[in-house]
Amino acid sequence: MSHAITAPPSATSRLVPIQEPVKARLDGVMDEIQRIVLSDFDMIEEVNDVLLRMRGKFFRPTLLLLVNEVGGRPHDDAVSLAAVVELVHLATLVHDDAVDHSVLRRGMPTVNHLWSHQVAVITGDYLYSRSVMELARLGRLEAIRSLARASNEMSVGELRQLTSYDALDFDEDDYTRLISCKTASLMAAACEMGAVVGVERWREAFRRYGQALGMAFQVADDLLDYEGSEAVTGKPVGHDLRERKVTLPLVETLRVVDDAGRDRIRSFFTLLDPSDDEIEEIVAIVRESGGLEYARGRARFYADQAEAALDEVGAEGEAMDALRAAIAYAIERSR
Questions:
Q1: DSSP state of 139
Q2: Rounded distance, CA 23 to CA 176, Å?
Q3: Domains of the chain: which residue ranges?
Q4: Structurally, what CATH architecture does the domain formed by 11-331 represent?
Q5: Is the distance from CB of 46 to CB of 86 less than 8 angstroms?
Q6: CA nearest to 331, candidates 218, 181, 187, 205
Q7: By the 8 A CB rule, do 247 and 240 touch?
Q8: 105 - beta bridge partners?
Q9: For labeling, which of 58, 208, 252, 328 is most exposed (least CB within 10 Å)?
Q10: Which residues pair with 104 in a beta bridge?
Q11: Lowest-pLDDT range, 7-16, 100-109, 161-170, 300-309?
Q12: Cα–Cα distance between 238 and 226 in angstroms, integer?
Protein backbone atom coordinates (compact mmCIF):
# COMPACT_ATOMS: atom_id res chain seq x y z
CA MET A 1 0.00 0.00 0.00
CA SER A 2 1.37 3.40 -0.92
CA HIS A 3 1.19 6.32 1.45
CA ALA A 4 0.95 9.95 0.42
CA ILE A 5 3.63 12.18 1.87
CA THR A 6 2.18 15.37 3.26
CA ALA A 7 4.45 18.39 3.36
CA PRO A 8 4.64 20.23 6.68
CA PRO A 9 2.53 23.36 6.81
CA SER A 10 4.31 26.47 5.57
CA ALA A 11 4.87 29.50 7.77
CA THR A 12 2.17 31.32 5.82
CA SER A 13 -0.41 28.56 6.33
CA ARG A 14 0.34 28.50 10.06
CA LEU A 15 -0.37 32.22 10.21
CA VAL A 16 -3.76 32.04 8.45
CA PRO A 17 -5.83 30.94 11.49
CA ILE A 18 -4.05 33.52 13.65
CA GLN A 19 -5.03 36.27 11.23
CA GLU A 20 -8.61 35.04 10.79
CA PRO A 21 -10.14 37.23 13.57
CA VAL A 22 -8.78 40.38 11.89
CA LYS A 23 -8.77 39.25 8.25
CA ALA A 24 -11.09 42.00 7.00
CA ARG A 25 -9.11 44.68 8.80
CA LEU A 26 -5.82 43.33 7.43
CA ASP A 27 -7.16 43.84 3.91
CA GLY A 28 -7.60 47.48 4.88
CA VAL A 29 -3.96 47.68 6.04
CA MET A 30 -2.72 47.16 2.48
CA ASP A 31 -5.02 49.93 1.24
CA GLU A 32 -3.69 52.23 3.95
CA ILE A 33 -0.07 51.45 3.07
CA GLN A 34 -0.68 52.34 -0.56
CA ARG A 35 -2.38 55.57 0.47
CA ILE A 36 0.40 56.57 2.87
CA VAL A 37 3.30 55.99 0.47
CA LEU A 38 1.59 57.56 -2.54
CA SER A 39 3.84 60.02 -4.34
CA ASP A 40 3.76 62.05 -7.53
CA PHE A 41 7.48 61.40 -8.06
CA ASP A 42 7.85 58.62 -10.62
CA MET A 43 10.98 57.06 -9.13
CA ILE A 44 9.47 56.79 -5.66
CA GLU A 45 6.40 55.15 -7.17
CA GLU A 46 8.63 52.68 -9.02
CA VAL A 47 10.57 51.78 -5.88
CA ASN A 48 7.38 51.51 -3.84
CA ASP A 49 5.92 49.08 -6.37
CA VAL A 50 8.94 46.82 -5.87
CA LEU A 51 8.74 47.10 -2.08
CA LEU A 52 5.07 46.27 -1.91
CA ARG A 53 5.61 43.15 -4.03
CA MET A 54 8.17 41.87 -1.53
CA ARG A 55 6.07 42.65 1.54
CA GLY A 56 6.00 40.08 4.31
CA LYS A 57 3.24 38.21 6.09
CA PHE A 58 1.93 41.23 8.05
CA PHE A 59 2.79 39.58 11.37
CA ARG A 60 3.28 42.87 13.23
CA PRO A 61 0.08 44.47 11.89
CA THR A 62 -1.72 41.26 12.84
CA LEU A 63 -0.51 41.57 16.43
CA LEU A 64 -1.58 45.21 16.62
CA LEU A 65 -5.05 44.48 15.31
CA LEU A 66 -5.53 41.41 17.52
CA VAL A 67 -4.56 43.40 20.62
CA ASN A 68 -6.96 46.13 19.51
CA GLU A 69 -9.78 43.56 19.32
CA VAL A 70 -9.28 42.33 22.91
CA GLY A 71 -11.92 43.75 25.18
CA GLY A 72 -14.34 44.45 22.36
CA ARG A 73 -13.27 48.03 21.68
CA PRO A 74 -11.70 47.99 18.19
CA HIS A 75 -10.95 51.43 16.74
CA ASP A 76 -10.70 52.45 13.09
CA ASP A 77 -7.34 54.17 13.77
CA ALA A 78 -5.81 50.74 14.49
CA VAL A 79 -5.80 49.92 10.78
CA SER A 80 -3.77 53.04 9.97
CA LEU A 81 -1.43 52.35 12.90
CA ALA A 82 -0.94 48.79 11.65
CA ALA A 83 0.02 50.17 8.23
CA VAL A 84 2.53 52.53 9.86
CA VAL A 85 4.11 49.69 11.83
CA GLU A 86 4.53 47.63 8.65
CA LEU A 87 6.06 50.61 6.83
CA VAL A 88 8.57 51.16 9.62
CA HIS A 89 9.42 47.46 9.51
CA LEU A 90 9.87 47.68 5.74
CA ALA A 91 12.09 50.75 6.15
CA THR A 92 14.39 48.85 8.53
CA LEU A 93 14.66 45.98 6.03
CA VAL A 94 15.58 48.37 3.21
CA HIS A 95 18.26 49.97 5.37
CA ASP A 96 19.53 46.59 6.61
CA ASP A 97 19.87 45.31 3.05
CA ALA A 98 21.88 48.41 2.11
CA VAL A 99 24.14 48.06 5.16
CA ASP A 100 24.66 44.33 4.55
CA HIS A 101 24.99 44.72 0.74
CA SER A 102 22.30 42.04 0.35
CA VAL A 103 21.13 41.30 -3.18
CA LEU A 104 17.98 39.30 -2.35
CA ARG A 105 15.11 39.76 0.08
CA ARG A 106 12.34 37.12 0.14
CA GLY A 107 13.61 35.80 -3.16
CA MET A 108 13.44 39.19 -4.89
CA PRO A 109 16.21 41.67 -5.75
CA THR A 110 16.71 44.30 -3.05
CA VAL A 111 16.34 48.04 -3.63
CA ASN A 112 20.09 48.57 -3.26
CA HIS A 113 20.73 45.85 -5.85
CA LEU A 114 18.17 47.16 -8.34
CA TRP A 115 19.20 50.80 -7.95
CA SER A 116 21.96 51.78 -5.52
CA HIS A 117 22.78 51.96 -1.82
CA GLN A 118 22.05 55.68 -1.92
CA VAL A 119 18.55 55.06 -3.30
CA ALA A 120 17.96 52.39 -0.65
CA VAL A 121 18.95 54.71 2.21
CA ILE A 122 16.74 57.51 0.92
CA THR A 123 13.87 55.09 0.30
CA GLY A 124 14.05 53.91 3.90
CA ASP A 125 14.07 57.54 5.04
CA TYR A 126 11.03 58.23 2.85
CA LEU A 127 9.11 55.36 4.44
CA TYR A 128 10.01 56.59 7.92
CA SER A 129 8.98 60.16 7.13
CA ARG A 130 5.68 59.12 5.59
CA SER A 131 5.00 57.04 8.70
CA VAL A 132 5.64 60.04 10.94
CA MET A 133 3.35 62.17 8.79
CA GLU A 134 0.56 59.60 9.18
CA LEU A 135 1.01 59.47 12.95
CA ALA A 136 0.84 63.26 13.05
CA ARG A 137 -2.36 63.17 10.97
CA LEU A 138 -3.93 60.76 13.45
CA GLY A 139 -2.85 62.93 16.38
CA ARG A 140 -2.09 59.92 18.54
CA LEU A 141 0.70 61.23 20.79
CA GLU A 142 1.12 57.99 22.75
CA ALA A 143 1.39 56.00 19.53
CA ILE A 144 4.05 58.45 18.31
CA ARG A 145 5.90 58.03 21.60
CA SER A 146 5.82 54.24 21.38
CA LEU A 147 6.93 53.99 17.76
CA ALA A 148 9.60 56.67 18.16
CA ARG A 149 11.11 54.73 21.06
CA ALA A 150 11.15 51.53 19.00
CA SER A 151 12.71 53.28 15.98
CA ASN A 152 15.42 54.72 18.19
CA GLU A 153 16.14 51.33 19.73
CA MET A 154 16.35 49.70 16.29
CA SER A 155 18.89 52.31 15.18
CA VAL A 156 20.97 51.76 18.32
CA GLY A 157 20.83 48.01 17.73
CA GLU A 158 22.10 48.39 14.18
CA LEU A 159 24.95 50.59 15.39
CA ARG A 160 25.86 48.05 18.09
CA GLN A 161 26.13 45.39 15.41
CA LEU A 162 28.16 47.56 13.05
CA THR A 163 30.65 48.61 15.72
CA SER A 164 31.32 45.10 17.02
CA TYR A 165 34.89 44.81 15.82
CA ASP A 166 35.26 41.14 16.73
CA ALA A 167 31.91 39.42 16.36
CA LEU A 168 33.27 36.26 17.96
CA ASP A 169 33.68 38.15 21.24
CA PHE A 170 29.88 38.55 21.35
CA ASP A 171 28.43 37.00 24.50
CA GLU A 172 24.81 36.21 25.30
CA ASP A 173 24.25 39.57 27.01
CA ASP A 174 25.42 41.34 23.85
CA TYR A 175 23.16 39.16 21.73
CA THR A 176 20.17 39.73 24.00
CA ARG A 177 20.59 43.51 23.87
CA LEU A 178 20.92 43.38 20.10
CA ILE A 179 17.76 41.41 19.37
CA SER A 180 15.84 43.34 22.01
CA CYS A 181 16.59 46.49 20.02
CA LYS A 182 16.43 45.21 16.46
CA THR A 183 13.43 42.86 16.60
CA ALA A 184 11.56 42.86 19.90
CA SER A 185 11.22 46.64 20.21
CA LEU A 186 8.96 46.96 17.14
CA MET A 187 6.75 44.02 18.14
CA ALA A 188 6.42 45.55 21.60
CA ALA A 189 5.43 48.88 20.04
CA ALA A 190 2.90 47.20 17.73
CA CYS A 191 1.17 45.49 20.64
CA GLU A 192 1.31 48.60 22.82
CA MET A 193 -0.19 50.72 20.04
CA GLY A 194 -3.04 48.25 19.63
CA ALA A 195 -3.93 48.81 23.29
CA VAL A 196 -3.44 52.59 23.04
CA VAL A 197 -6.45 52.71 20.70
CA GLY A 198 -8.17 49.81 22.46
CA VAL A 199 -8.21 49.04 26.17
CA GLU A 200 -5.65 51.42 27.63
CA ARG A 201 -5.27 49.65 30.99
CA TRP A 202 -3.75 46.60 29.26
CA ARG A 203 -1.16 48.66 27.45
CA GLU A 204 1.85 47.69 29.60
CA ALA A 205 1.00 44.00 29.72
CA PHE A 206 0.62 43.87 25.95
CA ARG A 207 3.88 45.77 25.50
CA ARG A 208 5.65 43.10 27.57
CA TYR A 209 3.88 40.40 25.58
CA GLY A 210 5.18 41.90 22.34
CA GLN A 211 8.69 42.30 23.74
CA ALA A 212 8.89 38.67 24.88
CA LEU A 213 7.27 37.45 21.66
CA GLY A 214 9.81 39.40 19.63
CA MET A 215 12.69 37.85 21.57
CA ALA A 216 11.29 34.34 21.02
CA PHE A 217 10.66 35.12 17.35
CA GLN A 218 14.24 36.27 16.72
CA VAL A 219 15.88 33.36 18.53
CA ALA A 220 13.71 30.99 16.49
CA ASP A 221 14.61 32.91 13.33
CA ASP A 222 18.31 32.51 14.11
CA LEU A 223 17.76 28.78 14.56
CA LEU A 224 16.24 28.63 11.08
CA ASP A 225 19.59 29.68 9.63
CA TYR A 226 20.96 26.37 10.88
CA GLU A 227 18.03 24.02 10.36
CA GLY A 228 15.31 25.73 8.31
CA SER A 229 14.61 26.12 4.63
CA GLU A 230 14.71 29.06 2.25
CA ALA A 231 10.95 28.69 1.71
CA VAL A 232 10.41 29.49 5.40
CA THR A 233 13.08 32.13 5.99
CA GLY A 234 13.09 33.92 2.66
CA LYS A 235 16.89 33.70 2.62
CA PRO A 236 19.34 30.88 1.89
CA VAL A 237 20.11 28.51 4.77
CA GLY A 238 23.50 29.43 6.23
CA HIS A 239 23.03 33.08 5.21
CA ASP A 240 23.95 34.41 8.66
CA LEU A 241 27.12 32.35 8.77
CA ARG A 242 28.02 33.42 5.25
CA GLU A 243 27.53 37.03 6.37
CA ARG A 244 29.64 36.38 9.54
CA LYS A 245 26.70 37.11 11.84
CA VAL A 246 27.03 35.60 15.28
CA THR A 247 23.67 34.49 16.67
CA LEU A 248 22.72 32.59 19.82
CA PRO A 249 23.45 29.02 18.61
CA LEU A 250 27.02 30.07 17.78
CA VAL A 251 27.37 32.19 20.93
CA GLU A 252 26.57 29.17 23.08
CA THR A 253 28.83 26.91 20.99
CA LEU A 254 31.78 29.25 21.46
CA ARG A 255 31.16 29.17 25.21
CA VAL A 256 31.24 25.37 25.52
CA VAL A 257 33.22 24.03 22.55
CA ASP A 258 36.76 22.66 22.92
CA ASP A 259 39.83 24.51 21.67
CA ALA A 260 39.90 22.66 18.35
CA GLY A 261 36.29 23.54 17.60
CA ARG A 262 36.82 27.17 18.64
CA ASP A 263 39.89 27.42 16.40
CA ARG A 264 37.93 25.97 13.48
CA ILE A 265 35.17 28.55 13.96
CA ARG A 266 37.69 31.40 14.17
CA SER A 267 39.37 30.14 11.01
CA PHE A 268 36.00 30.04 9.24
CA PHE A 269 35.39 33.70 10.11
CA THR A 270 38.56 34.68 8.24
CA LEU A 271 37.29 33.24 4.94
CA LEU A 272 36.23 35.73 2.30
CA ASP A 273 33.81 33.40 0.50
CA PRO A 274 33.12 30.21 2.47
CA SER A 275 31.86 27.21 0.55
CA ASP A 276 28.69 25.30 1.34
CA ASP A 277 30.81 22.46 2.75
CA GLU A 278 32.65 24.86 5.06
CA ILE A 279 29.34 26.29 6.28
CA GLU A 280 28.01 22.78 6.86
CA GLU A 281 31.10 22.00 8.94
CA ILE A 282 30.34 24.91 11.28
CA VAL A 283 26.67 23.88 11.44
CA ALA A 284 27.80 20.40 12.48
CA ILE A 285 30.02 21.81 15.24
CA VAL A 286 27.15 23.93 16.53
CA ARG A 287 24.77 20.98 16.46
CA GLU A 288 27.18 18.61 18.20
CA SER A 289 28.03 21.19 20.87
CA GLY A 290 24.39 21.65 21.87
CA GLY A 291 24.11 25.18 20.51
CA LEU A 292 20.83 24.50 18.71
CA GLU A 293 19.17 22.87 21.70
CA TYR A 294 20.30 25.69 23.98
CA ALA A 295 18.78 28.28 21.63
CA ARG A 296 15.52 26.31 21.48
CA GLY A 297 15.40 26.43 25.26
CA ARG A 298 15.87 30.19 25.29
CA ALA A 299 13.12 30.61 22.69
CA ARG A 300 10.80 28.61 24.96
CA PHE A 301 11.85 30.78 27.92
CA TYR A 302 10.77 33.96 26.10
CA ALA A 303 7.60 32.23 24.91
CA ASP A 304 6.73 31.50 28.53
CA GLN A 305 7.21 35.19 29.35
CA ALA A 306 4.80 36.11 26.56
CA GLU A 307 2.25 33.63 27.91
CA ALA A 308 2.60 35.13 31.39
CA ALA A 309 1.90 38.61 30.05
CA LEU A 310 -1.30 37.38 28.40
CA ASP A 311 -2.30 35.69 31.66
CA GLU A 312 -1.93 39.07 33.34
CA VAL A 313 -4.39 40.59 30.86
CA GLY A 314 -6.82 37.85 31.81
CA ALA A 315 -9.25 38.44 28.95
CA GLU A 316 -10.83 35.73 26.83
CA GLY A 317 -12.09 35.47 23.29
CA GLU A 318 -11.05 34.78 19.72
CA ALA A 319 -8.41 37.53 19.59
CA MET A 320 -6.76 36.31 22.81
CA ASP A 321 -6.72 32.75 21.47
CA ALA A 322 -5.00 34.03 18.33
CA LEU A 323 -2.42 35.95 20.38
CA ARG A 324 -1.60 32.74 22.24
CA ALA A 325 -1.37 30.87 18.94
CA ALA A 326 1.05 33.56 17.72
CA ILE A 327 3.50 32.44 20.41
CA ALA A 328 3.55 28.89 19.07
CA TYR A 329 3.87 30.26 15.53
CA ALA A 330 6.87 32.36 16.53
CA ILE A 331 8.90 29.46 17.92
CA GLU A 332 7.76 26.61 15.67
CA ARG A 333 8.30 28.06 12.20
CA SER A 334 11.13 25.60 11.47
CA ARG A 335 8.92 22.55 12.06
A1: T
A2: 33
A3: 11-331
A4: Orthogonal Bundle (1.10)
A5: no
A6: 218
A7: yes
A8: 108
A9: 328
A10: 109
A11: 7-16
A12: 6
